[in-house]
Amino acid sequence: MAQRKQRPSSKSHPSKRNPGASEALQGYYMDSLGFQAMDINVPGLSHVILQKLNMKNYEDYRSAVDGRKPATDFGIHTYFDMFQKMEDTFKFCVECKKLPASLPNPRSLRRCKRCQNVYYCSSECQRANWSGHKKFCKKLKLAAIDRLVEWLVFTGDIPFPVNPWTKHISEVRSWEEWFCMQEHLEQKLGSIMTGHYMSLLWSNAGKPKPDDGELLESIKRLTSDFLSRPLTIGFGLNAFHVDTCTGPITVHVVGASHIETLNTRISDYDELAQMFPGNQGIEVVMVGPEVTDGPIMRPPLAAFGPRGKVYLSSFKGLYHDFWETLVESQQAARPNLVVGFHPGFHASQGLTEGWFPTLLLLRDYKIPSLFTMYNEQELRYSLQILMELETNITAHGINPFASLKLEQVQSNPNKQPVYSNSHYIMFYGLSGEDEGLNLGELEEKEDKDDDEA
């Protein structure tokens, strides 16, 4: 930056610098924004989702996410019920946006035969929508398959068992190379294909079963989606030259929510131990006001953890509060790396301001940090915010361990799908007097991509 402004500082009790921030964020959930956006695109769709889950309102939903509502309350009695209720939340005319209840005949919705994903209330709506839908029809077919096969993550079939890495992480630069490193890959994939739950899935899905080639690729995409977060953490540890063999390592995941913590098992990040054979113990602490209750809701380590293993724990609250209450009192270890998966602070001024205490803390205490984004546009906006805070941006770009699973916009399927952890930013400390990141090339590339889309 050409001219140095007075820097805000986080070291003098960051939460006290903005006394209203904590109170404002306590009742502010990212998924509430999702419900609002959903109803803007398809009025009433959020109510359908709640209804299918046997919930009266958003408060019931939060109770379920927080673990305060038992699964038996969801009104799901059979596997067919489960898959049908999920499919019902995608049933609306993608052209006129009408839900079944708004149609003269609620059963008149017909699914696109090509993608098995979107619905139309009439042939007229389908013809009118084709020019927009044809760009994404093939991708939406993959998303529809993955939506069902993802159940095998819940059953434990995905991911398949893995072995310690035979290559250094710097030599594994893509998912293709990761899959090539797996021993007996065909047998492992075959056991999932012929497994009990795969058979149960397609006996109850209410859709035609894809061919074996499509199912194999779906399993690979979902494996990448499950492992994307631990591999991204490993990518960050390597980029910041953190040596896992000389002592125990601590990673804090900031802004964690139900996405990272709902039904999370204590073994879900074990791939980190496979990435770094000979490690002295790796602790991953999930921190955020939307962290859900579960097996990993346990205190962080104050001393060394088990060698060669990954220890998962969590803290429900804002990160700067976690820092003051546990890190500063030495009840939790200072992190070697802080990671934020899709923090979303670019999305609105309110979210940006809510993140300021954490971003300033990471900057002022010179903590190696890595944040991920869904696409290049989010990357550019996030870079601008971090530049305004005068953080020292050490790297940014495409994440080699981005999820391969397409994420469609449920209420607007004919929109460019995205991939979780697609892009990343790494930053460390304050920017130098004459340092600055030129966004010109990034903006030009984005404009070119928009023209080609």
UniProtKB/TrEMBL annotation:
MF terms (GO), sorted A to Z: zinc ion binding
Domain of life: Eukaryota
Region (Disordered), start-end ranges: 1-22
Residue intervals of the MYND-type domain: 93-137
Keyword field contains tRNA processing: no
Membrane-crossing segments per the record: none
Keywords: Metal-binding, Zinc, Zinc-finger
Record field: compositional bias (Basic residues): 1-16
Name under which the protein is recorded: MYND-type domain-containing protein
